């Protein structure tokens, strides 16, 4: 028996990784291959029977897994960020949640003959969408940036809100089902323990992090251990209060000032990916296929209510007073796939409610899986066609993600932004990110290859990556990650490789992409030129002022960077790029190039000199404090 359990745990790990990889490779939500895998192993082939294999351990495994999932989701619920991401997002996660909840609960009560308590619980379980299903769909569909941003942040924020709502309804049902206690007294005691204990422990953990009372290598493990201890302790004090406690604890941590929880979020997300994947296979394997089929036409009508009534009503009500157009709203109406959080929480609640003998508890899981299967399959297959029909696609992705927010990258980003080109700077150096924010440049602070980045880094409108950073160990990882995401020919890096031994350790495909701005251009060279007063400017290359004229004016030291032709952004990679007329060239001009241009202008006359000075002033990227330090670090 021990060997069988060990083998199944190993199989779950391998299958979880395989399903996540298939979802990533096919640009589909990982929930689809996970669902198919669980159904195949469980009801299909009867290979995996979680109840028989794990026995009494199954409930603790699911319970602890759900606790980690809810805590990780709550860590992302920063109330300030809700306000920062627009009125539509705020409306959807507040008014929209209530409308969706009321519609689904009412339909469940009348169609499935549920008691109102169970109908309200089911409605709370399926209001959540979640980034794990939304983000892969957005990458495939590529709607315009405003719509992608709304959907992405709705999924991030509504996860913990919906889970908290479901926990509250569940606790009311659990208390009401116990005839030995007074409902209001017990519910008040449970809420007091959950909210009070969660808030206190969240604050204390925040103090521990802020005061650096744990060494860095113990911080992530310490927070996880404390969270699990709090979950168990809360349940010992008051049964069923643990989920509320860890959710409140995460929300308090997310909204405390002066603490950095980005490392914790990244660690929890990595853990959550494994937990979610394994849990979902287990939960799908437990699904009774007969119970799913026995839902009949009522279940299908309920699915139709969720997709065609609740969501459109929520979107149109929340869209009142916003700048969204009619087609934008119709697109948002069709993008609300349910995720793994609903499946995990519903399965846990179903087990507990069945033990309490609550009527209808055995139907909760099949209904939730029906909504998940229906929304994910139908919407992932049709949303792209719907977006093209409505004309809400972003078109060709001309934007740039630049890894490395050095002085050079910031100045290049400012010039590109002035040309209405989408630019985002990513860096794990806070000083660089802070300076970029002061210039109003969109940024991502952290490792752009992390799971956190896959959910929070806005890639809308971005089609290429420029690696302009001094992090020689991280650069190849970032390049390989985004070659898979964007395409091999959409990733460019600087030629920072020194020595033949270093080159032999890297693949030829990677080395072939180290041609950004030319094979001889390195990070140290760019940083040095900027620190010495080089500027970035744009120049129109026309029939009357060709690229040869440009070189004649500025000399061979002028460095082409990017050129815009017919609305398309092109990256300069060397002399092989023919810079013909009809382009707008963005280039880096060292001091000697600027002096040469001024000397030539003086020879041509004072009028030409004035025009040149005015042209350079309009596009100038002046050196800022810290540039010289960057140059020294690079050298």
TrEMBL record:
Its main location: membrane. It is found in: Cell membrane. Residues 14-385 form the Cation/H+ exchanger transmembrane domain. GO terms for cellular component: plasma membrane. Pfam families: Na_H_Exchanger. InterPro entries: Cation/H_exchanger_TM (IPR006153), Na+/solute_symporter_sf (IPR038770), NAD(P)-bd_dom_sf (IPR036291). PANTHER family: NA(+)/H(+) ANTIPORTER 1, NA(+)_H(+) ANTIPORTER 2-RELATED. This is Sodium/proton antiporter, CPA1 family.
């Amino acid at each position: 028996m021990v060997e069988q359990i060990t083998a199944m745990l190993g199989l779950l790990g391998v299958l979880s990784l395989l399903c996540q990889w298939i979802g990533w490779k096919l640009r589909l939500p990982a929930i689809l291959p996970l669902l198919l895998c669980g159904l195949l192993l469980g009801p299909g082939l009867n290979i995996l029977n979680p109840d028989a294999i794990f026995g009494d351990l199954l409930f603790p495994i699911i319970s602890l897994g759900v606790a980690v999932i809810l805590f990780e989701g709550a860590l992302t619920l920063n109330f300030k960020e809700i306000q920062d991401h627009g009125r539509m997002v705020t409306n959807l996660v507040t008014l929209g949640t209530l409308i969706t909840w009321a519609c689904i609960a009412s339909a469940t009560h009348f169609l499935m003959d549920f008691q109102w308590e169970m109908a309200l619980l089911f409605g709370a379980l399926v209001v959540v969408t979640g980034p794990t299903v939304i983000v892969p769909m957005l990458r495939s569909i590529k709607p315009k940036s405003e719509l992608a941003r709304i959907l992405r942040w709705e999924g991030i924020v509504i996860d913990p809100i919906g889970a908290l709502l479901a926990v509250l309804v569940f606790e009311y049902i659990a208390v009401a089902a116990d005839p030995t206690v007074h409902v209001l007294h017990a519910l008040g005691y449970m809420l007091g323990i959950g909210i009070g204990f969660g808030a206190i422990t969240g604050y204390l953990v925040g103090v521990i992090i802020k005061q650096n009372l744990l060494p860095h290598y113990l911080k992530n493990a310490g927070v996880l251990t404390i969270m699990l201890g709090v979950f168990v302790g809360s349940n010992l004090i008051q049964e069923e209060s643990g989920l509320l406690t860890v959710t409140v604890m995460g929300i308090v941590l997310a909204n405390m000032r002066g603490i950095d929880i980005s490392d914790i979020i990244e660690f929890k997300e990595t853990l959550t990916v494994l937990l979610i994947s394994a849990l979902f296979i287990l939960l799908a394997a437990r699904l009774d296929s007969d119970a799913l089929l026995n839902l009949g036409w009522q279940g299908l009508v309920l699915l139709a209510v969720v997709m065609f009534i609740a969501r459109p009503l929520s979107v149109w009500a929340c869209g009142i007073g916003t700048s969204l157009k009619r087609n934008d709203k119709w697109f948002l109406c069709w993008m609300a796939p349910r995720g793994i959080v609903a499946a995990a929480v519903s399965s846990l609640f179903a087990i507990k409610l069945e033990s309490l003998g609550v009527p209808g508890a055995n139907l909760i899981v099949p209904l939730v899986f029906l909504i998940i299967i229906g929304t994910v399959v139908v919407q992932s297959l049709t949303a792209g066609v719907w977006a093209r029909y409505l004309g809400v696609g972003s078109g060709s992705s001309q934007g740039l993600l630049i890894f490395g927010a050095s002085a050079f990258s910031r100045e290049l980003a400012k010039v590109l932004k002035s040309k209405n080109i989408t630019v985002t700077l990513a860096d794990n150096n806070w000083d660089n990110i802070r300076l970029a924010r002061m210039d109003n440049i969109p940024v991502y602070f952290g490792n752009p290859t992390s799971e956190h980045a896959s959910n929070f880094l806005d890639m809308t409108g971005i089609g290429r990556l420029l690696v302009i950073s001094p992090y020689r160990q991280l650069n190849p990882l970032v390049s390989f990650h985004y070659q898979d995401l964007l395409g091999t020919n959409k990733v460019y890096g600087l030629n920072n490789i020194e020595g033949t031994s270093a080159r032999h350790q890297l693949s030829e495909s990677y080395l072939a992409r180290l041609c950004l701005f030319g094979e001889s251009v390195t990070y140290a060279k760019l940083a040095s030129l900027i620190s010495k007063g080089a500027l970035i400017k744009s120049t129109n290359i026309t029939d009357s002022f060709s690229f040869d004229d440009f070189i004649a004016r500025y000399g061979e030291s002028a460095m082409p960077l990017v050129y815009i032709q017919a609305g398309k952004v092109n990256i300069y990679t060397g002399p092989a790029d023919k810079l013909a007329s009809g382009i707008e060239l963005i280039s880096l001009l060292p001091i000697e190039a600027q002096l040469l241009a001024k000397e030539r202008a003086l020879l041509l006359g004072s009028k030409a000199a004035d025009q040149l000075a005015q042209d350079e002033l309009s596009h100038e990227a002046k050196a800022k404090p810290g540039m010289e330090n960057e140059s020294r670090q690079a050298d």
